[in-house]
Structures are given as structure tokens and as C-alpha cells.
Amino acid sequence: MRLVILDDYDLASEWAAKYICNRIIQFKPSQGRYFTLGLPTGSTPFGCYKKLIEYHKNGDLSFKYVKTFNMDEYVGLPRNHPESYHSYMWNNFFKHIDIDPNNAHILDGNALDLQAECDAFEKKIEEAG
Q: Residue 41 CA to chain centroid, in angstroms?
């Protein structure tokens, strides 16, 4: 594991966004060859997401062949609730980039069987590589 220490939040956000951007570009994703990305939620990654959106809008980065998997979701909170991680990700990231909505995976915190939801989510991650 590499530890990177930077002076402030903005520098850390930019470093993380550049790292993700470079990894996607170097992978050369294409139809049938998707880059898989795990994403956290909350205030910490917000700056990184803003930079990734900037790279996309500048034409430097595409998410067309990227599959994402979010790490968490609240149980019992409707997905359209403004505090749900589903809403957070769509409002703060996904709707600003060219990702196929079918490739943006977020757990369903309202599934009738939460264990089955988690098992199916894990299977999707395994299938994505």
C-alpha cells in the first residue's frame, strides 16, 4: 500500500481524480472491455468527483465503458430521498458524466431480502472482474 500525504483536501481530491483518470485511460476500456471502479459516498470523495466531472466535460475522460459499484447504502431510506447514497451519487456525479445508468451499481437498501441483495451485488462485482 502506498501512502500519499498532501497539504489539503483540494490537493488530495485532485490527486485521487488524476489517479483514477490515468488508470481508466491506461486500461483503454471499450465495448466488451469495461473498467471496474468501486466508489465511496459522503463528503470525502466529493472533491474527487467534481474533478472527474471536470475532466469529463473537458473531453479528457469518458465513463462510457466504466462499471461502478458503490460501497454502501442506507437500509430503509427510499432511493429518491435526498440523503440516500443513490440520490447523492446521481446528483453529485453520475448525471454529469456519460456513464450508462445500467453500469452504475448501487445497493438497494429497500430490498425485501437484504442478504439476497448483497449476494447478488457481490455476484455482479465478480462478473465485472
A: 8
Helix (H) or strand (E) segment spanning residue 35: strand 35-39
- HSE at residue 123, side-chain half, CA atoms within 13 A, is 6
Condensed to tens digits (0 to 9), the pLDDT of residues 39-72 reads 998 899 999 999 999 999 999 999 999 999 999 9
Q: Would you say 117 and 108 are in contact if contact means Cβ atoms under 8 Å apart?
A: yes
Percent of the chain whose pLDDT exceeds 70: 100
Of 75, 56, 72, nearest in space to 64 by CA = 56
Q: What is the pTM of this model?
A: 0.94
How many of the other CB atoms lie within 10 Å of CB of 129? 9
Coil, helix or strand at residue 36? strand
How many angstroms separate the CA atoms of 61 and 20, rounded?
A: 10
Predicted confidence (pLDDT) per residue in 22-48, tens digit: 999 999 999 999 999 999 988 999 999
Cell of 102: 445500467
